[in-house]
Amino acid sequence: MYSSFDRSVLDHLRASLGDESGAFARRVISIFRRQGHELMDDLERAARDRDQPALVLAAHTLKGSSGSVGGQQLTHLCEQLELWEDGSEADLAPLVGSVRAEIEVLDRELESYL
Q1: pTM confidence score
Q2: For 4, which DSSP code?
Q3: Burial zone of 96 (CB within 10 Å; 0-12 exposed, 13-18 middle, 19+ buried)
Q4: What spatial distance separates the first Cα and last Cα of the chain, rounded to whole Å?
């Protein structure tokens, strides 16, 4: 099991950029929170439609975004979705539901980071 939020990722980003005020980190978090929910909507739509290329693209993009803010568990879940193969009979709903729940957890963790 991965932790939901590894704050050292943002701490390292802030230190490497000299972001003492946290302004850059707040911007990165704001962008992630907005785009993350948009990507989640794309992911749910693709899963519902069983649109493998759209699902993999949304999962891959969300994976990268969540990794950049320290979302370890969300990154791991998105990696699992990237492996879904077109034509698979696998039920995507539980995994997509886990991604939705985890993005909400990460959202709260990021809010507390600010």
Answers
A1: 0.91
A2: S
A3: buried
A4: 25
Question: Tens of pLDDT along 64-73?
Answer: 999 999 999 9
d(CA 93, CA 22): 37
pLDDT of residue 90: 77
Q: Which domains does the chain have, with CATH numbers?
A: 7-113 (1.20.120.160)
User: For 85, phi and psi rounded to 5 degrees?
Assistant: -105, 140
Burial of 47 (0-12, 13-18, 19+ CB in 10 A): buried
Q: Which residue in this structure is represented by tokens 């963790």? A: 109
Q: Assign 3-class secondary structure to 21-61.
A: CCHHHHHHHHHHHHHHHHHHHHHHHHHHHCCHHHHHHHHHH
Residue that is written with structure tokens 């939705």 in the block: 100
- Angstrom distance (rounded) from CA 3 to CA 16: 23
Read off the pLDDT of residues 39-70 as tens digits, 9 standing for 90 and up: 999 999 999 999 999 999 999 999 999 999 99
